[in-house]
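Sequence, please.
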């Protein structure tokens, strides 16, 4: 019952984030955030909770202007998604380039079919292999990521990973004090 209660709580919290975004009331409390700290913390959580190989060798220091809680949720949702679909490996990349911070989350799973790459960011969309409730997916995680990334003047895309699965790439502006 505890697991089901936690799943329902996550579902309600996700729906509240999306409702606030719909009403243009998604307020980001801006501060300089070390995005690499968030990535390293989520990688450590993944190592603790799974048997997946977790590679953070591509993570460099990167600062953004943003809401730390929202950015934590972005990274957590991407990590949870990668872990759900990975066969054995998840890899992270983080770098600054031309005024933009680029976050990459790769997995070695089945990837995302080209025809579904935009659709997976819609609410309640779960591809056939991810439809099982036991896997924890509600179909809101990537919709929430897109809304939160947009609140940070960024964008998210999905493509093919060099590991063979999916690569999610988030681009957000570098912190103003770093430019």
């Amino acid at each position: 019952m505890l697991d089901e209660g936690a799943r329902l709580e996550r579902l309600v919290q996700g729906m509240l984030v999306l409702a606030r975004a719909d009403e243009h009331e998604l307020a980001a409390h801006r501060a300089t955030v070390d995005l690499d700290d968030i990535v390293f913390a989520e990688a450590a959580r993944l190592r603790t909770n799974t048997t997946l190989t977790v590679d953070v060798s591509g993570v460099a220091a990167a600062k953004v202007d943003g809401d730390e809680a929202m950015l934590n949720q972005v990274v957590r949702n991407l990590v949870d998604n990668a872990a759900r679909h990975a066969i054995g490996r998840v890899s992270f990349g983080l770098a600054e380039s031309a005024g933009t911070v680029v976050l990459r989350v790769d997995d070695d799973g089945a990837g995302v079919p080209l025809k579904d790459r935009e659709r997976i960011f819609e609410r309640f969309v779960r591809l056939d292999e991810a439809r099982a409730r036991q896997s924890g997916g509600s179909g809101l995680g990537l919709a929430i990521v897109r809304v939160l990334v947009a609140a940070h003047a960024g964008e998210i895309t999905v493509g093919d990973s060099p590991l063979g699965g999916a690569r999610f790439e988030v681009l957000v502006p570098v912190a103003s004090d770093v430019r």
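The domain at 2-173 is CATH 3.30.565.10 (Heat Shock Protein 90).
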